[in-house]
């Protein structure tokens, strides 16, 4: 009886998810099999898998995929690293009102609009008026055009993403640390275990499920990033910061009007995301099983 009641309460959410995700996905698959251009009338010819074959030979798509992978790997790694470091530094040292203050400060970057964040940092990176170049000139270096230089543009956007998400991940990791029984850590210290031994043999294994969950969530967000690139560089200079989602947008809506080709790009990206994160989850869980 309780199962039927449970499913009944879930039904509205399932229907909403179906309307917002399943139908658009089916529609995208349908569009990807045709040759539809928003800027041409009467273009509605069935071409099968031609768009997908074209993707294999599309150097710009391959570059966008590479940019997405680089951005995903670096942002997830740095966000987890800095989030873990902040959580370990704060663990056991903040309480009461100070904890509330730190929580508020750490949440602020994450709740800021990505558009507002990108515009603020774009101004900070500005060559002549930006505060970053101001401090650089104070120590004797020449100002840089961070977002117009191919060698610094992607790294500059990575810094923005890490700045926005690392504090929030630190709070999630800190909450997990606070939930652990303190007795086992005290026993380890009494037995003479060093800080590194405690971290390696107790803290990190206990944190693994939390780290897995937040790394997967952050990984999906990073792999499908669009707003930072669009608002800060439009994918430039050239295509050095053009991700797959941005490339699909430019092809399908902004300039090209090739909605069928953009749909094929999106479907391929969906499949890559599903396969990639399924494999990561299996490898992670197999590795974690060694600590159980």
Walk me through this protein's architecture.
With 292 residues, the protein is mainly α. It has a single domain (28-291), classed as MetI-like (MetI-like fold, Orthogonal Bundle). It is 74% helix and 1% strand. It is built from 12 helices and 2 strands. It has a two-stranded antiparallel ribbon. Helix 3 packs parallel to helix 7, helix 7 (153-179) packs across helix 9 and helix 9 runs antiparallel to helix 12 (259-288). The mean pLDDT is 86.
3D shape: globular
Number of strands: 2
Record the strand order, biggest sheet. Answer: 1-2
User: How widely separated are the two ends?
Assistant: 35 Å
Per CATH, the superfamily is MetI-like
Sum this structure up briefly.
The chain is mainly α. The chain is built from twelve helices and two strands. The protein is globular, with a radius of gyration of 23 Å.
In terms of topology, how is this protein built?
Layout (H helix, E strand, L loop, with lengths): L1 H31 L1 E2 L9 E2 L3 H7 L2 H32 L5 H16 L2 H11 L6 H8 L14 H27 L2 H9 L4 H29 L3 H6 L11 H11 L4 H30 L4
List keywords for this structure.
MetI-like fold; mainly alpha; 292 residues; single chain
